[in-house]
Amino acid sequence: MPRKIKKIKYCPRGHSSEDFAYFDAHGRNMIYSDGNCDLCTKERFIQEFKTWSSGNVNIDKIIRESQINNRCEKLHWIPYDNLQNIEHIADGGHGSVYSAKIENGLKRKWHFIKQDWEYEILGIEVALKEIKDFRYDIAEFLKVSKIMDNYDCIGISKNPSTQNCIIITDLDDDLHNCLTKTFWDLEWETKIEVLASIAECLGNLHGKNLVHCSLHSGNILKERKFKIYDLRIDLDLCKLESDLILNSNNKNNKIYGLIPYIPPEVLRGSRFSKKGDIYSFGGIMYEIVTAQRPFADQAHDTYLMIDICNGVRPKVPDFMLNWIPEWYLDLMYQCWSDDPSERPTAIGLADLFREISDKIYDDIVDNNVMRQLKIADENQKNTSKSQKQELFELFSYSSKLHPQSRYIGRYIHTLHGLCDSLEEIKSGKSSDPNLLLKSNKSSTSNINTREIDEETDMLAKISLVG
Ligand SMILES: [Zn+2]
């Protein structure tokens, strides 16, 4: 076994760095030098600051700080011509998503012997999110990513023809797509594992006083090569709770998100809170047991918002009730409580799902929670695949998805914002600005994405309402 010894290493420029060198049994040094020096690397990055700019001082500042301060995970300014094989994947709430290859890789470390950069992720596929929504604050996203040590964000680029900024991240699949593909093969063990993983991610966010504000199954991501429960949450619209409180003097006229996942208090115009994220989590619990997103069979309009505020919640199809433990349904409806203080906390959910997951692993059935789970799992296993498919066709995703449902982020008028015209909308005298006009608009997306906000439609509709 080689011995591991701490020693001081010097680069040709005289920078010293403490490093580990390995010696074999005879005391011979096995690794002399890797030709890298963190300080030389930092100096080279600083020298190159003048060679690029995103056009936004706040974004430049965050990228530069990460190149100076982060020893490992740095953000990069990525010239557009380094992105090759660009293919459109889908349109999202803030812009469009593409896949691309990073042709020449990213600068990793300065090699003082070769006097050149060493590159990483050469030719690797990544996701490009071209931001077309001028209200979306990229610097804010980068700030939150930094707080959460989110290594999924690789860097920023700019499309020279549109002048839009592009956020470059790992190429991931979203939970909705994973569930659609694998739902009938999922056992309770995996479902609980998935929920434990999401609740833990949410608990981490809340622990750092961040509120997600837009949690749904399209925002929960999985690296393609990983298992379904190796999840992370797209930080998208994440905000510091203190900033939300500062901005909450007045009620909101508009909010961004998906109506079925937005808690009633926010639909009414109040600010988003950690308890609001828990309401959204209820929507994910629903999809995990039904393979449906909440309110898939209804138009996502102002009428639905009023219904939600009056206590209407998504229903679990009767034929599925045998496959779901009663405590699970109770917990899901508790997340959906109209009173935010009655909803559980993310940490509470994470602890509960983790404890159940551990018991499933050790095959411990010591209480009612575990007994109900075992029965539900057996009931589901005892239903043949053909029976399941038959039932599913009756309750099929494609046939039941309402043409005016929308699972892609958009700006929504709150009931507070609509208060003057609400009676007219209800009586049909005014058109509903929250109703989608395009009935043939597909709302499926196959990756980490939300479709383009139909802002022009929205503006037309606002002028219709007056
Ligand atoms: Zn050096």
From TrEMBL:
<dbReference type="GO" id="GO:0004674">
    <property type="term" value="F:protein serine/threonine kinase activity"/>
</dbReference>
<dbReference type="InterPro" id="IPR001245">
    <property type="entry name" value="Ser-Thr/Tyr_kinase_cat_dom"/>
</dbReference>
<keyword id="KW-0418">Kinase</keyword>
<dbReference type="InterPro" id="IPR011009">
    <property type="entry name" value="Kinase-like_dom_sf"/>
</dbReference>
<feature type="domain" description="Protein kinase">
    <location>
        <begin position="83"/>
        <end position="361"/>
    </location>
</feature>
<keyword id="KW-0808">Transferase</keyword>
<dbReference type="GO" id="GO:0005524">
    <property type="term" value="F:ATP binding"/>
</dbReference>
<dbReference type="InterPro" id="IPR051681">
    <property type="entry name" value="Ser/Thr_Kinases-Pseudokinases"/>
</dbReference>
<keyword id="KW-0723">Serine/threonine-protein kinase</keyword>
<keyword id="KW-0547">Nucleotide-binding</keyword>
<dbReference type="InterPro" id="IPR000719">
    <property type="entry name" value="Prot_kinase_dom"/>
</dbReference>
<keyword id="KW-0067">ATP-binding</keyword>
<protein>
    <recommendedName>
        <fullName>non-specific serine/threonine protein kinase</fullName>
        <ecNumber>2.7.11.1</ecNumber>
    </recommendedName>
</protein>
<dbReference type="Pfam" id="PF07714">
    <property type="entry name" value="PK_Tyr_Ser-Thr"/>
</dbReference>
